[in-house]
Amino acid sequence: MAHHHTTPSLNELVTGVANRLKTAGTGFYLMVFIAAAVVLASAGTGLMAMIKGHEAYYNVYREVPWGVLIATYVFFVVSSTGLCLISSIGHVFGVQDFMPIAKRSVFLSIATILSGFFVIAFEIKLPWRMAIWNVISPNLTSNIWWMGTLYGIYLAFMFAEYIFLLMNKHRPAVICGFSGSVAGIAAHSNLGAVFGLLMGRPYWQGPYMPIYFIASAMMTGCAVILMFHILGYKINKQEMAPDMQRALEVTTKIGILLICVILFFTTWKLIAGAAGQPNGAFPVVQSEVVGHHAFVFWFFEILLGMAGPLVLFILSKGRNLKLMLIASLSMVIGIFVMRFNLVYLGQSLPVYYDLGVNEFKEMLRYSPSVYEWIITAGGFGLTALLFLIGEKVFDGHKVEDH
Amino acid sequence: MNKNIDLNNLQNEGVENVPMQERRDFLKMGLAITGIFAGGTLFSAISTFNSAHASDFAKKYPYKPHYSMVMQQHRCIDCERCMEACVATNHVPQVHGAYRTTILEKETPDAVGGKREFIPILCNQCNLPQCTRVCPTKATYKDKTTGIVLMDIKKCIGCLTCQEGCPYNARYFNEHKKAVDKCNFCWDTRLSKGEKDTACAHACPADVRVFGDLSNQEDRVFKIVHQIERPVWVLRPEAGTRPNVFYTKG
Question: Which intervals hold domain 4Fe-4S ferredoxin-type (chain B) (predicted)?
C-alpha cells in the first residue's frame, strides 16, 4: 500500500478546523460550554482551597489523609495507561485489527493523564515545591518519586507519539509508542507500589497492588476506548467503517477477558483477606463484603464496574454499539468507585485497631466534601473538553491509509 | 508500508542461530526494563540488607547518642501535662487532629483489679522508618548522628505519603508551617540547646516517660530495656520498623 495523501498547507489545515467547528451543532457547543464551566469551577475551588488551606474545604483528616481526589487521580492515570497499552497492541505491536483505534486512543491517553495531573495539583498541599525538590532532592527509594518521574517521561513519549502519528511518520511513532508503554507500565506499577509497599497497611501491602494496577489499567483501557470511539462517531455523525467496527469488536473481546481477569483477582483478594482472618486485612474485607461499605462495593464495583458490563459485552457480540456504549459507561462509573474503594478501604482500619484502645475501636469513615466533588468533576470536565475539541480539531482522528 | 507476515507459514528458525551479541543485547534490555519497573524498591531492599540482623548493642543502636524513650505505662494517670508541655514547647496548633503526642485509653472490663490503662504515643523514631523511605523529596529524613526522624519543611510537598506509611499515626499536616509536622524529641526546641530531655518527659509528674541514650549502657533507658524481670515491648512490631520507643509495666 502506498501513501496517497499529500501534506496539506497550514492554511488548508486552519480552514478545515474552522469549517468543522462552524458546522458543529448547538448540542456540541452546549457540551463544550458545560465541560468548560465545570473545569473553571473546579480550578476556582481548587485555587481557593490551596490559598486558604485545604483543611477548611476537604473532608480528609489525620487518619484518612487520602480521599476522593487521590482516587480520581488514580482513576485518570489508570485510564491513560490503559488507553496507551490497549491501543499499542495495534500500532506498536502490529496487530492489524487494532490499528484504527490508535490515534484517538493516544490523544485520549494524553487528555486523561492531564486530567489526572489537574486534579492532583489541587490534592497535593504544595505542588510548586514538588517541581523544585523532586528534581534537586530526589529520593530514589520512594515509589511516589518514581511514579511522578516516570509519568512525566511517559507524557513526553505520548505527546511525541501523537505528533508522529499526525505526521504519518510510522517508525518514530512506533518507537515512541513502545517507549511510552514501557514508561507507562513502570510508572503505573510504581503507583501500585505506593500503596503496596506500605508496611503498616495490611490491606494494601504485598506484590498484589502493582500487578493488579496493570491488569486493571488494561481493563479500564478497553472501557474508555469503546466509550470514546462510539461517542466520537455519534458526535461527528459518521458511519463507522468496517475496519473500525472490527477494531471495536476485538476491543470488546479483550475487555471481556480482562473483566474476567480482574474478577478473578478480586475474588482471591477477598478470600486471602478472609481465610484465617489475617490481622489488619480481615476487618477491612469484612466491611467491604458484608459491612458498612458493602453496598458501594457490590453495586458499583462489582455490578456496574464488571458483572453488568460483562453480560452486556457478551450479548453485544462486539457489534451492538448501543449495548457496548451502555456497558462502557457503566464500567467507567464502576471503575471510578473501584478506585475510591481501593484508596479508602486501605486507610479505613486505624493503625492502632489491634491495640484495642477506645479511640480507635471503630473503622474510620470518610465521605468527600462538596468542594472535593467539584474538583473531581473538573477532572472529568477536562477530559470531556479535550475529547470534544479533539474530535473537531483532528477531524474524528481519521486514520490515513498506509 | 507494513510487511504482511504470514504467521501460519513461518518456519521455526530455532534459537541456536541467534548470534551471541544479539542474545546479550536482548538480556541487557530485559535487565534495564526490570530495573525501571522495580523503581525505588530495589534501593530500599539493598539498604535493608545492610542493617538487618545486627545482634550486639553497638550495631543495634548505631547512633550516638541513640535517643530513645521508655513508657512506664502502668504509671500514667492521663493528666495530660506531657501533651500541654509539647504544645507549648513545639507550637502545636490547637486544631482537631493536630498533636505530636497523645494518650490513648484502653479498658479491659473483665480484668481483675484495675480495668483502665493509659498508653502514651508519639513518633517512634524508627531505625527503619517507612516515612523517610516513601518521601519523594527527602523532606523527612533520619538524622545521621542522633537517629531522630526530622523534617526539612521547605522540601515538603504535602503529598502525605509519610502519614500513610507511618504505622504509629505520628504525623499530621501543619497548616501554619505548611508542612507535615511530627515529634522530633524536641530536637530544635530543647536537645540542640543543651537540654537533656524532652518537654513531655520533663513535664511528667509520674515518671512515665523515661528519655535517654540507648547507646550508653549506664543510661536509665538502656537499663530498663535490657532487664528481664519486667516485660518490655514495642507497638506494632509486625510493621518491621524497629522503633525506638519502648513500653513496660508492672
Answer: 67-97, 114-145, 147-176
Beta strands of chain B (E only): which ranges?
A: 67-72, 102-107, 116-121, 140-142, 149-151, 171-174, 179-182, 209-213, 232-233, 245-248
In a domain, residue B187? The reply is yes
- Give A53's contacts in chain B (Cβ within 8 Å): 175
Cα end-to-end span (Å), chain B:
82
- Looking at the domain assignment, is residue B14 inside a domain? no
pLDDT of A2 reads 43
**DSSP letters of A211-271?**
HHHHHHHHHHHHHHHHHHHHHHHHHHT-PPPHHHHHHHHHHHHHHHHHHHHHHHHHHHHHH
**What Rg do the C-alpha atoms of chain A give, in angstroms?**
22
Residue B225 lies in a domain: yes
Percent of chain A's residues with pLDDT above 90:
84
Q: How far apart are the first and last CA of chain A?
A: 6
Domain containing B79 — which CATH number? 3.30.70.20
**Which one of A3, A51, A62 would you mutate to disrupt binding with B, by most B Cβ within 10 Å of its Cβ?**
A62
Residues of A within 8 A of B166 (CB-CB) are: 200, 351
Query: Average pLDDT, stretch A352-366?
Result: 95
User: CB–CB of A62 and B169 under 8 A?
Assistant: yes
Distance from CA of A203 to the nearest CA of B (A): 12
Residue B58 has pLDDT above 70, yes or no: no
Q: Is residue B228 part of a domain?
A: yes
CB contact under 8 A, B33 and A347: no
pLDDT of residue B37: 65
Rounded Cα distance between B183 and B185, Å, is: 6
Range of the domain at B101: 67-129+183-248
Is residue B41 less than 8 Å (CB to CB) from chain A?
A: yes
What rounded mean pLDDT belongs to chain B?
88
Residue B35 sits at the chain A interface (C-beta within 8 Å)? no
Under 8 Å between Cβ of B234 and B248: no
Q: Give pLDDT tens digits for A47-93.
A: 999 999 999 999 999 999 999 999 999 999 999 999 999 999 998 99
Cα A316 from chain centroid (whole Å): 24
Position A402 confidence tier, pLDDT thresholds 50, 70, 90: very low
Ranges A141-150, B32-41, B88-97: which has the least confidence: B32-41
Lateral strand order in the sheet of B67-72: B209-213, B67-72, B245-248, B232-233
The number of domains in chain B is 1
| ipTM associated with this complex | 0.91
> Which domains can be identified in chain A, with CATH numbers?
22-258+369-395 (1.20.1630.10)
